[in-house]
Input
Amino acid sequence: MSDYCGTEQTAAPATPVTDDGPRFAECVLCRKPTEYPESHKGITLCPVCEWREAERTACSG
Output
């Protein structure tokens, strides 16, 4: 019997892994991609967390 609405659940196709360029490191606070490559040493922050960190240090006096 066919589902009238076509809402049969099927497995989502796997996204292919491409090697188009350097992989980006994850932000250490929110886990979003950063502007830094994975090989970057030290703490990596995404642009939003980097901005918030700069605001905190600027206001700390």
Q: What stands out?
A: Residues 11 and 22 are 29 Å apart (CA to CA).
